[in-house]
């Protein structure tokens, strides 16, 4: 079976630094993905250069099927020497993940990665190898749905030193923290935000070192079908509903008129959930056969705001709190990030007369831009998105 590779990485800069001394590089290849987390010596500009060069060289060469020995030799000979320390040094962890679930990990001087299965740490045996003067740790495992692979830089392990924790957030403490999260089928991004968000808290929001996390999960492919807006011509209602009926996977309806058409054509009742009330956001509804029914333009606007925070490592706690809410926007975000691997977006092109009133900001052009932005953010989260208009 070929799996979907769910990847998320986040980084916090050392307090007062414009550039991060860690760098994470990802690339797709024929069999899956190559992921590299590198930590440059020190912090700031010099560390950023060392880490960026290391990660980019590793990804570029391995993508072109270069050997590990040649890749490490090139890194060693290419890195500029620090004028103060007289060293050219950058740690790295390389993850070569295949769509089959097979994963190979190469580590040099970074904290050990974590592999979790059924919510508990499950580590394979590692072998040591000396390559061009560097002691490398090699390991291999086969991931399956529900597993998580997590790579961190030492800035995560050192979180809290001299502040909330005497000896920092030790590797064993991080392991226990992740095990206690009981993530289930959550997205890799949820784990990344959980760990880096707490890292920031331990640093009192003033990191004493660059801190980075790279998370990988494998998932069985699952489609989310999102129907937003009614067809331009009423005579196409039946065709629109036929697409809804034939869609395989999760089914979400966004928009009162859209839901009304599907409810009418299928003879299914549409019930508003009055228990779910949120300021400035209409309640959701329920309908047999639909995984979620929400209002349209306001709810999708809130989904966009949540997904924008998904890429902001400084707002991890805000993102996690918002994602856990019970309103339609948060539920749709969870379906996108936790449940789906690809999205089919059916956009009806009818103009809502209510949106054409003078002074009303949500006109048809706004809707088109909104769908375009939503598609962009879902693709940025790693989901493959297909857009259909009717």
TrEMBL record:
InterPro entries: Bact_Sigma-Reg, PPM-type-like_dom_sf, PPM-type_phosphatase-like_dom. GO terms for molecular function: phosphatase activity. It holds the Pfam family SpoIIE. It comes from the Bacteria. Keywords: Hydrolase. Signal peptide: none annotated. The keyword Phosphoprotein does not apply. Residues 31-218 form the PPM-type phosphatase domain. The keyword Isomerase does not apply. Gene3D superfamilies: PPM-type phosphatase domain. PANTHER family: STAGE II SPORULATION PROTEIN E, STAGE II SPORULATION PROTEIN E-RELATED. This is SpoIIE family protein phosphatase. It comes from Proteiniclasticum aestuarii.
């Amino acid at each position: 079976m070929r799996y979907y590779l769910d990847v998320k990485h986040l980084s916090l800069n050392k307090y007062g630094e414009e550039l991060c001394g860690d760098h994470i590089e990802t690339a797709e290849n024929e069999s899956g993905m190559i992921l590299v987390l590198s930590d440059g010596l020190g912090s700031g500009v010099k560390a950023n250069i060392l880490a960026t060069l290391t990660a980019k060289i590793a990804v570029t060469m391995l993508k072109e099927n270069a050997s590990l020995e040649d890749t490490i030799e090139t890194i060693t000979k290419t890195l500029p020497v620090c004028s103060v320390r007289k060293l050219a040094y950058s740690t790295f962890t390389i993850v070569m993940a295949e769509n089959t679930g097979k994963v190979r990990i190469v580590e040099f001087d970074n904290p050990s990665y974590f592999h979790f299965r059924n919510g508990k740490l499950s580590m394979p045996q590692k072998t040591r190898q000396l390559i061009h003067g560097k002691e490398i740790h090699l390991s291999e495992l086969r991931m399956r749905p529900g597993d998580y692979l997590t790579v961190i830089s030492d800035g995560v392990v050192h979180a809290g030193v001299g502040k909330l924790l005497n000896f920092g957030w030790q590797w064993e403490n991080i392991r226990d923290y992740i095990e206690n999260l009981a993530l289930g089928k959550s997205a890799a991004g949820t784990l990344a935000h959980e760990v880096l968000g707490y890292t920031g808290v331990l640093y009192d929001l003033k990191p004493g070192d660059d801190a980075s996390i790279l998370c990988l999960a494998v998932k069985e492919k699952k489609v989310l079908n999102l129907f937003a807006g009614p067809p331009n011509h009423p005579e196409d209602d039946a065709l629109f509903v036929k697409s809804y009926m034939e869609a395989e996977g999760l089914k979400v309806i966004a928009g009162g008129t859209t839901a009304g058409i599907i409810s009418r054509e299928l003879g299914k009742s549409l019930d508003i959930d009055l228990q779910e009330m949120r300021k400035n956001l209409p309640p959701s509804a329920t309908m047999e056969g639909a995984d979620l029914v929400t209002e349209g333009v306001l709810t999708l606007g809130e989904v966009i705001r949540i997904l924008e925070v998904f890429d902001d490592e400084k707002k991890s706690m805000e993102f996690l709190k918002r994602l856990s809410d019970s309103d339609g926007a948060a539920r749709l975000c969870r379906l996108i990030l936790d449940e789906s691997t690809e999205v089919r977006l059916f956009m009806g092109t009818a103009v809502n007369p209510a949106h054409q009133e003078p002074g009303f900001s949500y006109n048809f052009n706004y809707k088109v831009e909104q769908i375009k932005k939503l598609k962009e953010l879902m693709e940025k989260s790693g989901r493959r998105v297909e857009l259909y208009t009717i």
